[in-house]
C-alpha cells in the first residue's frame, strides 16, 4: 500500500479546524498551517484583570454541526465540549422603555409580542412558521450543498428551493417582507435585525432571509459552556487525536500548482515547499487570490462584491451586577434605516447605534470576579477602508455610553474596571479578513447566494475553499457547513 494522500489546510479558523478533522477521517495525512500563534481565528479569547471574554462570536446556533464532527470521528464530544439550550435568546430594549423578552419558544415569543407590542399572536406564529418552513425547504439546499456542482443543479434542488419561496421573498427586501407581515415598527425592527447575522442591510437583503429567526425560535439558541473558545479547543483536540499536524506562527506564502496549472501541487511556508494532493484554503478568499495565487487569474467579479459589515467591540469588565440584563441584550437604535445608511453608504458611524451586550458571566460566573460582570459590547461597524481608527473608536465609545445611559438609565463609564477594544482594522490585521468584514461578502442583493466564491476551484483540481468568505457564507454554522461541502468533493485517501 502506498502512503496516504497528503492534504494541507491553510488557516485554522473554525472552518479550517473542521476541514482538518474531516480530511483526517477520510484518511489524509493532514498538515494545518496557521499564521497566528494559536488556532481559532475570529473565535478568540481575551483575559483581562480577572475577567474572561470571548473576543468574537457569542451566539451559538445549530450545535449539531460541531457534534457531527465527533460522531464522524467516532469519538465522544462530552469530555471536550458541552452546551445547553437557552430559554431566552435575547432581551430587547428601546429608549422609550419598551422591553421585549425574546423567548426561544415560538409560542412564548408570540404571547410576549402580543402582550408588549399588541402584535396578534397568530401573526407571530405564522411568521415563525414560515421561517421554519423556508429553512427546511430552501435553506437546506442553499446552505448545505454547493450551488456550483452539477449534482445540486441536476437533481432539481435549486429550482425546488426557489419555487418554495414567494416572489416577494426573492426580490423584495427583508424589511418589506417584515413590514407586510408584522406591521408594528418595533416588531419589524426586531426581525429586521436578523439581516445583521450575515453582516447585511435589511432594507436591501432579500426577504428570504426571514428564515434566519427560524434558527433561534425553532432550532434553538445555545450557550457554549465555558465560552465559545471551547469550540476551538474541542476541534483542535479532536484533530490532534486524529493525527492532524498543526503548525502555528506559520503563514502560508504561496499555493503551488502543476506546470499546466490544472492541479494543485502544495504550498510554500517559511520559504519551504510542502507537497500536497489537496489544499483546503480557509484564508479569506480575497487576500488568498491576491497574495497566495498572484499568477492565477482572479475571479474579479466575485472578489469585488460588497463586503459585509464589520464590528467594533468594547470588552468592559464592570464592577457591579445588572440583574435586568441577560446573556444576550440588544438596545435598539431609534432609526434603523439611518444606521444602515452609515454602515453601507457613508461607511462611518452615526450617533445612535444599535448596541449588543453579551454577558457570559450570567451563565458562567467564573468569567468575572464576584459581584462583577464581563460586558462584551458590540456595534456593527462599516468595513475598513482606511477610516481614522482612533476617531472611530472614540466616537463609538461616546455613542455607546450615551445609548446605555438613555436606554438603561445607567452611567456606565465609572463602573468600567478594565477595558480593551477591537475595531475593523484590528479584525483585518488579526485574521486577514478583507476590510475587516466579519461575514465575508454582504447579502445586499437577491443574487448574493449565487455570487459567493464556490468551495471548489473551477479549474484547479485539488484546490478547495472553506470559511466565512465563501459559499454558503459567514457565521459559525455556515463556516462549518463550508468545510463539509468543500471536503465531501475529495475522494477517500
Ligand atoms: C466580533 C465578532 C462577532 C461575531 N459574532 C458571531 C456570532 O455571534 N455568531 C456567529 O456564528 N458568528 C459570529 N461572528 C462571525 C464568525 O466569527 C466567523 O464567521 C467565523 O468564525 C469565520 O471562521 P473562518 O473559518 O472563516 O475563519 P477565520 O476566523 O476568519 O480565521 C481564518 C484563519 O486563517 C488564518 N490565516 C489566514 N491567512 C493565512 C495564511 N496565509 N497562512 C496561515 N494562516 C492563515 C488566520 O490567521 C485565521 O486564524 C463574529 C465575528 C466577529 C469578529
Topology:
Blueprint: E1 6-10, H1 14-25, E2 29-34, E3 45-48, E4 51-54, H2 64-73, E5 83-85, E6 88-93, E7 99-103, H3 106-117, H4 121-144, H5 150-154, H6 157-163, H7 167-171, H8 174-182, H9 185-192, H10 213-219, E8 222-224, H11 229-241, E9 245-248, E10 252-257, E11 264-269, E12 272-275, E13 278-281, H12 285-292, H13 300-303, E14 310-318, E15 328-331, H14 336-346, E16 355-359, E17 373-381, H15 389-408, E18 416-422, H16 424-431, H17 448-451, E19 463-465, H18 476-488
Parallel strand pairs: 1-2, 1-13, 2-9, 6-15, 13-19
Antiparallel strand pairs: 3-4, 5-8, 6-7, 10-11, 11-12, 14-17, 14-18, 15-16, 16-17
Helix pairs in contact: 1-2, 1-11, 1-18, 3-4, 4-6, 4-10, 8-9
Bound molecules: flavin-adenine dinucleotide (FAD).
Describe the structure.
The chain has about 500 residues and is α/β, with parallel strands linked by helices. The protein has a domain at about 105-220. Helix content is about 35%, strand content about 20%. The protein has helices spanning about 15-25, 65-75, 105-115, 120-145, 150-155, 155-165, 165-170, 175-180, 185-190, 215-220, 230-240, 285-290, 300-305, 335-345, 390-410, 425-430, 450, 475-490; strands at about 5-10, 30-35, 45-50, 50-55, 85, 90-95, 100-105, 220-225, 245-250, 250-255, 265-270, 270-275, 280, 310-320, 330, 355-360, 375-380, 415-420, 465. Strands 7-6-15-16-17-14-18 form a seven-stranded mixed β-sheet. Strand 11 (about 265-270) and strand 12 form a beta hairpin. It starts with 5 loop residues before the first strand and ends in a 5-residue tail after the last helix. Flavin-adenine dinucleotide binds near residues 34, 433 and 479. Flavin-adenine dinucleotide binds near residues 13, 283 and 479.
Amino acid at each position: 500500500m502506498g502512503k496516504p494522500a497528503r492534504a494541507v489546510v491553510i488557516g485554522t479558523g473554525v472552518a479550517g479546524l473542521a476541514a482538518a478533522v474531516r480530511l483526517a477521517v477520510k484518511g489524509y495525512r493532514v498538515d494545518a498551517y496557521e499564521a497566528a500563534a494559536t488556532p481559532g481565528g475570529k473565535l478568540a479569547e481575551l483575559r483581562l484583570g480577572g475577567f474572561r471574554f470571548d473576543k468574537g462570536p457569542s451566539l451559538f446556533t445549530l450545535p449539531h454541526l460541531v457534534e457531527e464532527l465527533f460522531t464522524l470521528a467516532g469519538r465522544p464530544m462530552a469530555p471536550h465540549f458541552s452546551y445547553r439550550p437557552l430559554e431566552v435568546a435575547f432581551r430587547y430594549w428601546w429608549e422609550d422603555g419598551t422591553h421585549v423578552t425574546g423567548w426561544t419558544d415560538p409560542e412564548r415569543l408570540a404571547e410576549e409580542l402580543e402582550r408588549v407590542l399588541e402584535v396578534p399572536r397568530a401573526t407571530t406564529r405564522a411568521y415563525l412558521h414560515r421561517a421554519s418552513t423556508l429553512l427546511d425547504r430552501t435553506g437546506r439546499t442553499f446552505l448545505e450543498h454547493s450551488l456550483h456542482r452539477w449534482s445540486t443543479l441536476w437533481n432539481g434542488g435549486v429550482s425546488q428551493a426557489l419555487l418554495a419561496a414567494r416572489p416577494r421573498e426573492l426580490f423584495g427586501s427583508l424589511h418589506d417582507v417584515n413590514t407586510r407581515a408584522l406591521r408594528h415598527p418595533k416588531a419589524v425592527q426586531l426581525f429586521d435585525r436578523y439581516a445583521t447575522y450575515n453582516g447585511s442591510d435589511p432594507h436591501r437583503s432579500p426577504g428570504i432571509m426571514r428564515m434566519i429567526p427560524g434558527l433561534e425560535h425553532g432550532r434553538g439558541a445555545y450557550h457554549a459552556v465555558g465560552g465559545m473558545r471551547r469550540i476551538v479547543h474541542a476541534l483542535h483536540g479532536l484533530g490532534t487525536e486524529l493525527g492532524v499536524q498543526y503548525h502555528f506562527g506559520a503563514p502560508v506564502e504561496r499555493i503551488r500548482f502543476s506546470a499546466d496549472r490544472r492541479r494543485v501541487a502544495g504550498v510554500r511556508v517559511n520559504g519551504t515547499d510542502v507537497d500536497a494532493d489537496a489544499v483546503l484554503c480557509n484564508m479569506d478568499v480575497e487576500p488568498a487570490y491576491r497574495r497566495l495565487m498572484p499568477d492565477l487569474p482572479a475571479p474579479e467579479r466575485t472578489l469585488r462584491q460588497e463586503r459585509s459589515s464589520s464590528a467594533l467591540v468594547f470588552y468592559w469588565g464592570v464592577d457591579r451586577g445588572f440583574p435586568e440584563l441577560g446573556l444576550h441584550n440588544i438596545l435598539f437604535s431609534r432609526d434603523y434605516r439611518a444606521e444602515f445608511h452609515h454602515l453601507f453608504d457613508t461607511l462611518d458611524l452615526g450617533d445612535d447605534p444599535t448596541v449588543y451586550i453579551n454577558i457570559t458571566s450570567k451563565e458562567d460566573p467564573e468569567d468575572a470576579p464576584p459581584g462583577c460582570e464581563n460586558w462584551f459590547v458590540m456595534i456593527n461597524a462599516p468595513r475598513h477602508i482606511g477610516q481614522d481608527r482612533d476617531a472611530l473608536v472614540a466616537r463609538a465609545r461616546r455613542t455607546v455610553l450615551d445609548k446605555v445611559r438613555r436606554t438603561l438609565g445607567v452611567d456606565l463609564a465609572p463602573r468600567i474596571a478594565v477595558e480593551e477594544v477591537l475595531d475593523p482594522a484590528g479584525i483585518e490585521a488579526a485574521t486577514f479578513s478583507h476590510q475587516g468584514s466579519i461575514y465575508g461578502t454582504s447579502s445586499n442583493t437577491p443574487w448574493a447566494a449565487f455570487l459567493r466564491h464556490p468551495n471548489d476551484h473551477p479549474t484547479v483540481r485539488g484546490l478547495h475553499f472553506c470559511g466565512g468568505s465563501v459559499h454558503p457564507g459567514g457565521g459559525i454554522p455556515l463556516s462549518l457547513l463550508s468545510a463539509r461541502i468543500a471536503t465531501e468533493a475529495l475522494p477517500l485517501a
